[in-house]
Amino acid sequence: MEYRRLGKSGLQVSAVSLGSWVTFGHQISDDVAEELMVTAYEAGINFFDNAEVYAHGKSELVMGNILKKMNWDRDTWIVSSKVFWGRCANPKPNQKGLMRKHIVEACHAALQRLQVEYLDIYFAHRPDVNTPMEEVVWSFHNLIVQGKILYWGTSEWTAQQVTEAHLIAEKHHLIGPVAEQNQYNMLHRTFMERDYLPLFQNYGMGTTIWSPLSSGLLTDKYFDGSVNEKTRMDLMQWIKERALGDADKMEKVKKLYELAKSLQLPLSQLALAWCLKNPNVSTVILGASKVHQLKENLLCFDALPKLTDGVMAQVDEILQNKPVLPVY
Ligand SMILES: NC(=O)c1ccc[n+]([C@@H]2O[C@H](COP(=O)([O-])OP(=O)(O)OC[C@H]3O[C@@H](n4cnc5c(N)ncnc54)[C@H](OP(=O)(O)O)[C@@H]3O)[C@@H](O)[C@H]2O)c1
To answer: What was the pLDDT predicted at 19?
Structure first.
């Protein structure tokens, strides 16, 4: 396993990690969740990603039980939670958002569900335009001072919002966000490859990127447009519509599938290795509903030598979505 520093922080994260969205506490049994975590840990993965909203808190409960059962040394793994959406279907006003009350209460609840004394990373799952940024930054900083979290990050914030958080942190000598958790994959590039560049340069932000396979679209199973039962696309209609309903996207997936085949790779490995090539990616969060998927995905490191400059150019030619950088 390769380890990368989470931005300019000292924290070392495995270059691929394991997430629990849709799967833990919902799509898969607790036994499969355990097998996934054990497979991941034994392969050197040291970061497990979670959030209060995943399966309305059940995902954290399942992960917490597994971590307790496995009894791995606490200093060998990193666990995260995320706050914003709330842990129930129809959250009341202070059960959602980034007001100090919810940040603190959601942290306490996540610690209980995960059965840990501290969260290694705590993410603001979305920006909260109704809460002053000073309140948000102070709240995360105070949790660090109290020892309840070690690092904090943002998720799907604009570059301007992250910059504002850093400016406030600098002004008051507080600890600012260390990483952004953003979507990054072959079909979704602009934030990572253009908008966030000043954050990497000016603040040393790391990234824990999500949906590297675009919810499974960048695998060998959708290039002909068919959907198997109980897959992500089957379970989540809105994802299916955005993916399979977009003819241009599906045409690109088909071409990427052919390119991967010519390299004797599954498309999933080409897609994951492509993410790993970006030096601003600290860790690629993998998702899997089956152990064999995780095992296949872990082989993405072997695909890296096949991603020559020529192959990367072929990918860009297919995708036609490489962001154009401003020239001053
Ligand atoms: N911060 C945020 O807003 C945010 C948002 C989303 C996710 N995340 C985090 O990022 C993690 C990863 O995101 P993601 O789950 O969307 O990742 P993804 O890699 O894009 O999708 C994972 C899904 O693709 C399918 N899959 C994976 N490997 C496969 C393979 N080799 N062959 C065929 N199908 C395969 C599986 O679904 P099926 O078997 O059901 O098809 C799997 O659950 C999440 O678990 C979560 O921790 C964060």
So the answer is: 98
